[in-house]
Q: What sequence folds into this?
């Protein structure tokens, strides 16, 4: 792969993972993997600056404003920090600073793993708080920040304006208590404190945020220079004196060796902290020196963040249990002797599948090394063979389903239950059927589903529609009010469009997008049920495997019976027809960059509404590329291929002709 191709690949992958982390709060890779990819991209762009793309993640801070919150333009940009991973890099930073300022001293602070916010005070009153977003604009989350007890509503400032940067986090003790409560109720557990805090702060209902008991540490006075402060440490003392919660402990030193000692001391005692940290921040203390050192587009040159390597610890593998998914796949999980890891207590970890267990030769009774990937998902890295018992035996997946006793079958790396009526599969299928993106039956969570199954009130999704309020009210922990609310939600779900119902069926490889495409193509369930695999494959986004899965699902007697019973219960089986224009019929368009008034999703919906295809990548089959500001590699490729490039105004003009 050429340097140009590798830069393009890294840019795509980093942008994708940055969105998952900063915007969606659903990271798929560890911080360490992301950091290594970013460092590689920085090195390549330095070596081949002519190949650096305009949308490179090295040129901007990740994150976008989400729908549902008012946009806030930051008066003082909220930059990110340059990460370093070795003591030698800290020494290099010190040498660069002291070349200009031999007397420079540093503040050395804990790097809290939370969500960065700016708190705005006017004449001593807290008036607004916003997330960092992309560094220049964020989301107004004042209503949620006001629920955080650490944030004072009024302070005796002595200044008309204060802009305070802080980090919102969830204490480890609160996180574990919250998950214990959810475990008792049979609810899905939260992944880690950082993601839970971020998700809580982005709730539209402030009552949800208040119940999560978040905290905040203040670490910077954004307008400190304008207020006459000479040193950063003075601003920290000022913030502490006016009632703000400041990160503690921190040190002030000019010695690199003292910085390293502090890093090692904190690293040894991370487990005793009631909050998650992922590193140590080193900042030039003198504000005038900071100004002279300046900043890059993304990062200040007067500060760095040392990142701790992923924490690994040994513990005992007590057992391997098997969990059954809604598709019948048996997933092995490690039961561990509890161990403190990355700020939380870990007692379980996924082992993925039988191949992973075999490759790592992990056995019950082993001492294993575990870590949290990105401090999110616990994983077993390896077994310590030197401590293995002489009588240990390799682990084999069960040949019978642990729930229903039906034989298991091999499916590539996975093992599946062959029983169609397996209670565990039924439980997962019902949970999926009722989930938000499917039939959206609010209140029908895992705990209620299990109780309905245990009482024999349901044996298929169609049975939900014959439930009576008195049946539900009699369940443990339920009452008349809760029962009536659930019955109302079940009744409302009958009007969901066919696309939701298809997704609710849980047909293998039929996700939300495919379900919508199928529903819009066929219009009603009978037409879809009679379609052949060849006909299905001719539809956009439907491949041969998906087509075979659909035909196979509708071909089963149990599926036909389910559809018939749902029809009899009054569940909608059709898709509302959306009137489509023809001005873009047969045309393929790609949207890239930031458009003046339309979001990318809105532009794609507009294209499809007028008969066009909104593609995700540029190829020779692309008819037009709709480009906005900061258009990147897609624009470059369009220009290389000679594909016409239009702006939002041209798109609007084209679509206005064929409504």
A:
């Amino acid at each position: 792969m050429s340097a140009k191709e590798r830069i393009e690949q890294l840019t795509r992958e980093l942008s994708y993972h940055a969105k998952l982390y900063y915007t969606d709060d659903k990271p798929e890779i560890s911080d360490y993997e992301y950091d290594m990819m970013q460092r590689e991209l920085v090195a390549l762009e330095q070596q081949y600056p002519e190949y650096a793309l305009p949308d490179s993640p090295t040129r901007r801070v990740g994150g976008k404003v989400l729908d549902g919150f008012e946009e806030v333009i930051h008066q003082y940009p909220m930059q990110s920090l340059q990460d370093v991973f070795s003591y030698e890099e800290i020494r290099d930073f010190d040498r660069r600073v002291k070349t200009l300022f031999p007397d420079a001293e540093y503040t050395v602070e804990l790097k809290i793993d939370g969500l960065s916010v700016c708190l705005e005070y006017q004449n001593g009153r807290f008036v607004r708080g916003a997330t960092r977003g992309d560094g220049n604009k964020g989301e107004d989350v004042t209503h949620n920040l006001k629920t955080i007890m650490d944030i004072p509503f009024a302070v005796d400032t002595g200044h008309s304006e204060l802009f305070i940067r802080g980090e919102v986090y969830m204490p480890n003790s609160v996180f574990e208590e919250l998950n214990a409560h959810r475990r008792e109720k049979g609810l899905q557990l939260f992944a880690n404190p950082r993601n839970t805090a971020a998700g809580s702060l982005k709730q539209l209902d402030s009552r949800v945020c208040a119940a999560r008991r978040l905290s905040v540490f203040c670490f910077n006075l954004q307008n400190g220079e304008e207020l006459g402060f000479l040193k950063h440490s003075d601003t920290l003392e000022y913030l502490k004196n006016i009632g703000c919660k400041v990160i503690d402990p921190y040190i002030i030193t000019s010695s690199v060796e003292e910085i390293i000692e502090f890093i090692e001391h904190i690293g040894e005692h991370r487990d005793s902290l009631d909050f998650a940290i992922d590193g140590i921040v080193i900042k030039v203390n003198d504000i005038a020196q900071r100004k002279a050192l300046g900043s890059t587009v993304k990062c200040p040159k007067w500060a760095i963040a040392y990142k701790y390597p992923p924490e690994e610890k040994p513990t005992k593998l007590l057992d391997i249990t098997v969990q059954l998914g809604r598709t019948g796949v048996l997933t092995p999980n490690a039961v561990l002797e509890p161990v403190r890891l990355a700020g939380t207590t870990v007692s379980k970890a996924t082992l993925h599948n039988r191949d992973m267990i075999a490759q790592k030769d992990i056995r019950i009774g082993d001492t294993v090394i575990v870590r949290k990937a990105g401090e999110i998902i616990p994983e077993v890295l390896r077994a310590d063979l030197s401590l293995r018992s002489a009588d240990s035996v390799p682990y084999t997946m069960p040949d019978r389903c642990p729930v229903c006793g039906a034989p298991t079958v091999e499916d590539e790396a996975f093992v599946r239950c062959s029983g169609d009526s397996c209670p565990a599969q039924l439980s997962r299928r019902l949970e999926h059927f009722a989930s938000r993106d499917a039939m959206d039956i609010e209140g029908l969570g895992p705990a209620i589903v299990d109780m309905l199954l245990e009482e024999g009130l349901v044996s298929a999704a169609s049975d939900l529609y014959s439930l009576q309020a008195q049946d539900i009210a009699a369940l443990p922990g339920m009452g008349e009010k809760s029962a009536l609310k659930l019955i109302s939600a079940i009744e409302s779900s009958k009007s969901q469009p066919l696309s939701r119902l298809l997704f609710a069926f849980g047909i293998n490889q039929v996700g939300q997008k495919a379900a919508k495409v199928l529903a819009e193509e066929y219009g009603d369930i009978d037409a879809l049920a009679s379609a052949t695999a060849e006909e299905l494959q001719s539809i956009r986004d439907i491949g041969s495997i998906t087509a075979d899965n659909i035909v196979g699902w509708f071909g089963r007697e149990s599926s036909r019976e389910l559809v018939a019973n749902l029809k009899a219960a009054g569940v909608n089986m059709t898709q509302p027809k959306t009137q489509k224009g023809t001005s873009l019929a047969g045309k393929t368009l790609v949207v890239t960059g930031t458009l003046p008034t339309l979001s990318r999703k809105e532009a794609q919906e507009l294209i499809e509404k007028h008969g066009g295809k909104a593609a995700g990548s540029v190829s020779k089959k692309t008819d037009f590329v709709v480009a906005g500001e900061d258009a990147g590699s897609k624009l470059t490729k369009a220009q290389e291929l000679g594909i016409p490039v239009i702006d939002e105004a041209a798109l609007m003009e084209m679509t206005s002709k064929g409504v």
